Fold:
Amino acid sequence: MITGAYPATRLRRNRQSAWMRSLVAEHVLSSHDLIMPFFVQEGVEKRDAIAAMPDVYRLSIDELIQEAEKAYHLGIPAIALFPVVEKSLKSEQAEEAYNPDNLLSRSVKAVKKALPELGIICDVALDPYTTHGHDGIWEAGDVANDKTLEVLCQQAITCAWAGCDMVAPSDMMDGRVGVIRQALDEAGFQKVAILAYAAKYASAFYGPFRHAVGSASNLGKADKRTYQMNPANSEEALREVALDIAEGADIVMVKPAMPYLDIISRVKTRFEIPVFAYQVSGEYAMLKIAAAHNLFDYQTTMLESLLSCKRAGANAIFTYAAMEIAEWLRDQNPVI
Ligand code: PBG
Structure:
């Protein structure tokens, strides 16, 4: 006789009511798990829609402060800022990336002044600033790793100087976490944390983001496969994560999220370090646009996809839906 089997054991018993399902739930999603990315642009009272990302806007700094305030009051712990850099400021060598008065620096300062308790995360990568749209310095048909590192260090220090709490290298150059840590420390920014985009894949799911920041036309038909990871690999992701931890990363990130849940899970199982997931622009757009065509309900599908990241082992999730979902969670009737 098999003990514990049907009919004595009926797994449906624990699913019979909302209150019971709630008590036995292994994972929950709360607004405290979410990081809201914002696109910031020059100007005043500007709020421009992004065709590829419904309900996401390019905001001028004044509008950004209003939105950041909403995020803060929804219990979202941190925001990530992405500048939409004017064409005339882009260059081969990305000098604008470390201009202390650039759009990103001014945005960070303004948000910190208005909301000192809200965490600010800044991307470290050169793609918003380069005429060719690559994340580093372009030389002889490829991104030059070590030359790029020098500029990334300057960019990270500029972000820290403006007041950001966490820098997030998203460039995938070899050795960047170590040199950025050293540069930050030497400049007196020991408290600024490094969130390493440790396993960042060369993903087509970034398409809408590149339209949002205007790097798509710069990049043209080129791709980032000589530095971002091959979607075919997972062992290599573990090596990337191990190196970033050894170099001083405080948190590691896997990106994109839903197509790479296996990577999140393996990283979480292997390493004792906080792991974040980035639900990228293409993932957001798929859910948003399909829901707009009544293929399914937006909030429940979005919640399910974010919950899948938590189940896989993510401690927190970057998502363009952070504020919508936080509002929705707040307005849900409590189960009991
Ligand atoms: C820049 C960067 C990208 C994203 C975040 N930082 C684009 C890229 O690597 O081409 C993508 C985010 C998204 O798609 O939501 N290095």
In short: The chain has one domain: 26-331. Residues 123, 125, 127, 135, 170, 206, 209-210, 224, 280-281 surround PBG (CB under 6 Å). Residues 26-331 form a domain with the TIM Barrel fold (CATH 3.20.20.70). The CA atoms of residues 116 and 223 lie 38 Å apart.
